[in-house]
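Blinded run. Sample ID left blank on purpose so nobody reads anything into the name before looking at the predicted structure. Input follows.
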Amino acid sequence: MSSVQLSTDERIGRHDATVLASTVALLLLVSMASVFFGSAGLSMADVLTGLRGIRDGRSATLPVAQIVLLRLLRIVLGVLVGASLGLSGFLLQTAFRNPLADSYLLGVSGGAQLAVTIVALLGVPAMAGFIPVMITAPLLGSLAVLALLLIISRRIGHDLLAFLLSGLALSYMLSAMYSILVSTRPDILSNTVFWSWMGLNRASASAMLVVGIGLVIAVPVVMGMMRPLRSYLVGDDFAMNVGVNVSRTRVGMLFISVILAATDVAAAGVVGFAGLFSPHLARMLTRRTDRSFVVLTMLMGSIVVVVGDLIARSVSASEIPLNTVLSLFGAPYLIWLSVKARRAV
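Blinded prediction complete.
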C-alpha cells in the first residue's frame, strides 16, 4: 500500500474519531441540560441537592431527589431508545435503498401499537407463561406490517415517493383500525392513548432492559454485516457478483430493524421521525458507510430523542408528547427530502 493511501486512511480515521468524540460530547452536554431543566422549576441548587440525595440513598424521601431521579431515568432511556431508532432507521433506509424510510412513516410502529391495543382489548396478561406479551405483541405486529411493505416494494419498484406514500397510507390505515378498536372499549381509552404517546415519562429499569436487550442483539450483528451492507448499497448485481446473498442480507436487515422498532414501542410508545433524522444527520458529517457511521447514527438518534424529550417537558406546565415534538420538526424535513428526491429524478 502506498504512503499516499496510508496518509489518506489516517486522515479519514482522525476525522471519524474527531466527529465521534464531538458527537459524544454533544450528547453529554444535552444530557446535562436535561438534568437541570424541566417543567418542575427546580433551581440549580435544588438539582444538586437532589443528586446528593440520590447518592445518599434518600430518593424515596426527598421530593427533589425523586424529580431528579426521574429525569436521569428519562435521559438513560432516551439515549437507548434514540440509539435503537437511529439503528433501525439506518437499516430500513439501507434495506429499501430509500432515504425516506422510517419505522414510524412506514407504519411499522403503527403495527406494533395496534398489536398491543389488541392484546389490551383481549385482556391478555403482561406475561403468558414464559412469554413476555408486551414485547411479543409489538414484534408480531411490526413483522406483519413489514410483510406488507415488502409486497408493496416489489410492486412499485424504486419510486421513492410512491413507496413513501404507500407507507403513509398503510400507517393511516393502521391508525384508523387502532381508533376503531379503542372506541369499542371506552374504559381502556385513557390507558391505551397514554401508553401510545407516553414517550419517556414512564422510564424505568424494565423499559431500559427491554431496549438494551434489543441493542445488545442487534449491534454486534449489524457490525458483522457491514461488508455485505456496503456491497448491497451499490446494487443487487454488484452485491451478487462479490458473493453477497442479497435476499438473506435484505431480510436480515429488515428483521433486525423490526426487533428494534418493537422494543422501542414497548418501552416508550410511538416515537416518530428519530429514525428518519439520525442517518441523515450522520451523513452530513461523514460520507463513509462503515462501523463508525453506524455508531454515529446511533449517537445522533440519542441526541434527537433526548433533546426532543427536554423540549416536550420544558415548554409548558403540562408535558407535550415526545412524538408531537419530533413530528413538528420532522414533517418540514420530510417535505424537503421529498422535494429533493423528486428533483433528483
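Unblinding after everyone has recorded impressions. DSSP finds 14 helices and two strands in the chain.
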